[in-house]
Amino acid sequence: MADKISLADQAYHTIKERILNLTYPPGMQLTETMLADDLHMSRNPIRTALKSLHSEGLIVRDYYKSITVKEITDRDIREIYQLRELLEGAAFKEIFQSGKAEEFSYRIEERVVRMCACAGDIYQWELADTQMHMEIVSVFENERINRIYENYLNEVIRMGLYSVRNGLHINKANENLKKMIRYMRSNNYEKAYEILRNDHFLIGKSSALKK
Q: Which residues form a coiled coil (predicted)?
């Protein structure tokens, strides 16, 4: 039983990573046989993994039981980035209004250091970027908001990869975040938020829409 659980868990994490890093792109049809061949394991752990991925909304099934990687529509992108700007915009303002700009500058800097270290791997960079954004909304200390963010991180990661592939430059984004941190330490909300909004809301959305 332990071996079966371990294999199913391994299959789940491998398939999920390949969906998130676009190895299995949106709209791609998957089969248990194909995945079993790819992962060099039997169909039983694959089937278990697919049930979990379906419950997370990463794959969809139709009436004919075909399995497809969930598409990302333009409406998905616009709605997610709208939600991101609304929540993070309010969170960023709260950081300054509560007098925590310097504290959060160091917390965000830790995430940016990780982003810089991952600059050569866009998937790992995007994972680090999502953690930077999670750090911003953590100012609310609100578990419900955290759950909302966690629920759509899978979509954000895939959208972020499209953004990088279509115009968002990693090194430039990293350098701009360093500037944002300096503005935070000088308590300059307007300049700091301008960088966050331009690089991570506006350019991110427009680049993702070019998918």
A: none
| Whether the Cβ atoms of residue 192 and residue 180 lie closer than 8 Å to each other | yes
pLDDT digits (tens, 9 = 90+) for 68-109: 999 999 999 899 889 889 999 999 999 999 999 999 999 999
Say what the pLDDT of residue 1 is.
47
Q: Contact, 15 vs 69, CB < 8 A?
A: no
Return the H-helix or E-strand segment holding 68. strand 67-69
Band (pLDDT 50/70/90 cuts) for residue 2 is: very low
Listed in sequence order, the residues at least 6 apart from 45 whose beta carbon sits closer than 8 Å to its beta carbon are 4, 7, 8, 10, 11
Residue with token string 């794959």 = 59
What gap in Å lies between CA 197 and CA 199, rounded to an integer?
A: 6
Do 168 and 207 contact (CB within 8 A), yes or no? yes
Q: Which of 122, 127, 117, 104 is nearest to 193 (CA)?
A: 104
Q: Which domains does the chain have, with CATH numbers?
A: 2-69 (1.10.10.10), 74-208 (1.20.120.530)
**Model pTM above 0.70:** yes
